Amino acid sequence: MLDLITNHRDLIESRTRELFLDLPALKPAIKDIDDGIPILIDQLVDTLRRGDRASESEIEKTAAKYGGLLFARGFTVGEVVRGYGTVCEAITKIGEELNVKLSNREFEMLNRVLDVAIAASVTEYQRRRVEASAHEELEHIGSLAHELRNALSAALVTASVIKQGIVGAKGRTADALDRSLRRMGDLLDRALAEVRLRKDAVPVLASLRVADVLDEIAAMVNADTDTRHQTIDFEVDHDLEIATDRQFFTSAVSNLVQNALKYTPKGGHVRVRARSVDDRLVIEVEDQCGGLPTGTAENLFAPFVRGTTQSPGTGLGLSIVARASRTLGGDVHVRNLPGKGCVFTMELPIVRVETPAA
Length: 358
Hints:
Layout: H1 2-7, H2 9-22, H3 30-50, H4 56-72, H5 77-97, H6 104-163, H7 172-199, E1 205-209, H8 210-227, E2 231-236, E3 241-245, H9 246-263, E4 269-277, E5 280-286, H10 317-327, E6 331-337, E7 341-349
Parallel strand pairs: 2-4
Antiparallel strand pairs: 1-3, 4-5, 5-7, 6-7
Helix pairs in contact: 2-3, 2-5, 3-4, 4-6, 5-6, 6-7, 7-8, 7-9, 7-10, 8-9, 9-10
């Protein structure tokens, strides 16, 4: 079998590629397939060269090594498993076509290698995902702590200046203090909402006026919009009410608004519209980010994803929006406005809470 693979390697790689592309499943990019198939065959060759001397631990070690290379190429664990199967099928078919007789011992060896290698690859994939998740969690906690510390430091400095009487309790220094305190409050609210969404995610419904929530958000971002010379318009029916979880709802809308301001350039404009459509509450947040790069819209709501790698933050804002919206029975999506910006739309069911009779 080793001679078959080494003497007809190009043919086996080509056939494996054809079989892999014929599979009715999602696949990595063509370049990743072209790079990944040789990695699968390299592993098989390395193991077969050891012959019967190869212990299961050696096969596992080799599989972990090559599995890591495949995962780095963008293969999912399912694609790696299917890849092993197509290599085996290609070798078997080409052997039959070339009239190369494979012994029972060689078939047993091949099956043993594939069995152990597949199990080791799955284990390696799980280990890497756990490791990556732990790293992301630590990065998130560190980023949150860093942002809180920055806001606290700014608040302490400005409060000290005001306390010493260097400046009055009104003016730009007081505005800076107010902005720092609001920033800390927003970070803590976001963290609390995320904890609730992870732990129980059971909404506590209460009737609230949408305009009241938007007024709170407007006050919270006012200092930031002044600093960046941005303008923001809120369009909402002041009588529009909804029964929802106030914390989840406020956190979701606040994150959408702050995300829009974050990616809108200085001097730009953001529009927030809230209206009822049939039995749905529709909130649209339109920014002037310049539009989204091709293929990024569907990934924006994933955790730890930022619209640009240069922007600071935890990368959790839009993820919280998505989870909160779905927990409240709705959803959120984005519409790209190429060259201009984008519109984030959150839709929620309008649930009414009956007021108990006196």
